[in-house]
Amino acid sequence: MAIAKKFIVAGRVQGVGFRFFTERVADQLGLRGYVKNLWNGNVEAYAVGEEAQLEEFKRRLAEGPRMARVESVHESDEPVDKTYRAFLIE
């Protein structure tokens, strides 16, 4: 059964290819949803998938791309938005 989670990633995560990294990881894991930069310098990712996929997604977000420095990943449960058919950069 599909579930949805929102992840807020803090640290040096803008200007280092984090959204493109996130999109690539989500595609590899078969997730749908979005990733976007926030005004405060964090990155927000919303993902829909199976629990094991989302756990791996969070683990990969905590690593980030080579130039990033992830300080924290906050996770929250969200309602499943069925309008997302793929994973998008917003």
Helix-strand blueprint:
Layout: E1 3-12, H1 18-29, E2 32-37, E3 43-49, H2 51-63, E4 69-78, E5 87-89
Helix pairs in contact: 1-2
Task: Provide a descriptive summary of the structure in words.
The protein is of the alpha+beta class and 90 residues long. It has one domain: Alpha-Beta Plaits (2-Layer Sandwich). The protein contains 2 helices and 5 strands, in the order βαββαββ. The protein has helices at 18-29, 51-63; strands spanning 3-12, 32-37, 43-49, 69-78, 87-89. It has a 5-stranded mixed sheet, covered by helices on one side. Strand 2 and strand 3 form a beta hairpin. The model has no long low-confidence stretch (mean pLDDT 97).
